[in-house]
Amino acid sequence: MRRQELAPAGISGCRPTVVWNARPMRQSALPEDSAQQPLASATAAISDRPASQAKPVSLPVGTRARRLQRRILLRDRSLEGLYWLFDQFLGRPLVNLYRIAAMIRLVGAQARRDCSVSVRRQVWDQVRLILFHGAKPWIYYVLELYRDGGMAEAGAYMMRNEVKHGLFKALNRIDPDAKDRAQKLGDKLEVSRWCAENDIAHPHPIMLVEGGQISWPGGSRADLDRDLFVKRRRGRGAYSSASYWRTGPFEYRDEENRPVTLEQITEGLQRRSERSERERLMVMPLLHNHPAIADLADVTLITFRLITCLDEELRPVLTNAYLRSMTKLEPNWDVGWIEEYGAPIDLETGALDRITGDKPPCLSGWFDHHPVTGSTVTGRIVPCWPELAALAVKAHSIVPERVMIGWDMAITPDGPALLEGNSFLDLVFPQRVFRQPVGQMRLGQLLDFHLDRLEAKLNEPGWRYP
Question: What H or E segment, with its residue span, contains residue 342?
């Protein structure tokens, strides 16, 4: 299927913000008729709090997070700590400054033509972004910081660097006993176990292949006579995954439309697992999309990213949710650099708003219809929305030692199912999807509260970074 050339609805040039701000998405309330009322009431409290009641802060939450990250790095006097000091204060900034030239070649002329932003200003803005906010050059375009007033809000954005390199690990270890009682999110077999124990819908593994050996954690050979999905036991996302569609008894076609048998699949997985300890592979049922969203994909599973965060009473609440269309897994889609599309979800109604891509060449491109399938996105109601929202909160309640978690979920013909959770999620794309920095969201208020908790710990002479 070739990409359809669709014009972004309601957009003129690179300044569609008037349309967006006229109908902001609700990011912090659940429907009153949620399937699990106690969970729904916990999340509904978010939107009931007016912004005027939020604790005033002297620094934007992004700037504050980056300063606390530097304090954490400076406390670590180990050899590894010295490496990270070099990485954060010298190596990473120099590499990112070098990358500006490549980014200008990729999208600089397009931004000048479509958005009336001179190349000189683009370069200068990216230099400031790297030196003062620790960002990578491509974030300048993804977050539309070239817009009027965009750079003035840079301090309110959370960047990948502080999430991935120290700060969020420290947030999750404010409680000194949290590490000992933490449930594992990275081990998918362990996630499957606690999902089963807590009655959370989840595609449980049928077969496990490790070191060339096959085991059966949740089934038998007969259970493999169906559509199958293979992924690593550890790791996140769809890296090294594979899908197989059943064509007959224990016969399948792979992603390249080649016929394969179950024996060929298992032999190939055994060889993969023998080559590397990282190739610990799980075989599980291949999930299918709910009919109400099936037209938004070709062969891939439409997923939903739901972000939950502990509130001021340390209870998990839902703050943001958006639909994800994974273009990188669609073999017949011609979308250039784009790896995924995202569309924000109104937490009260479950309605989708406009959809956008995740790469710099997308600039300010927003669409009412899916850019590839042409199906309507804006205004579409997510099926089973109250149940999906409640499921995310329930899952976080099982791992309350983590401050913030991004849950990847699916909606199948049988209802919502949890795929995996990530407590070090990248916040850059959600900020693009919602067209708003974290510092202006309820999520930002909650993160600022937890930064208060972390700063108090950093001020204790005896507290050690975990």
Answer: strand 341-344
Please name every residue paired with 230 in a beta bridge, in sequence order, or none if there are none: 242, 283
Residue pair 32/41 in contact by the 8 Å Cβ criterion: no
CB atoms inside a 10 Å sphere around CB 153: 17
E-assigned strands of 99-256? 207-210, 213-215, 228-232, 242-248, 251-253
Amino acid 38: pLDDT: 39
Residues 211-221: tens digit of each pLDDT: 999 999 988 99
Tell whether the model's pLDDT for residue 32 goes beyond 70. Answer: no
Q: Domain-by-domain residue ranges, the chain?
A: 17-184+292-458, 204-285
Name the H helices within 175-235.
Answer: 178-181, 188-197
Partnered with residue 232 across adjacent β-strands are 281
At position 105, the amino acid (one-letter code) is: R
Is 371:361 a contact under the CB 8 Å cutoff?
Answer: no
- Which residue, chain included where needed, has tokens 């954690």? 217
Residue bearing tokens 């003129």: 12
Contact 401/184 with Cβ under 8 angstroms?
no
User: Taking the model in full, what pTM does it have?
Assistant: 0.86
Q: Which CATH superfamily is domain 17-184+292-458 in?
A: ATP-grasp fold, B domain (3.30.470.20)
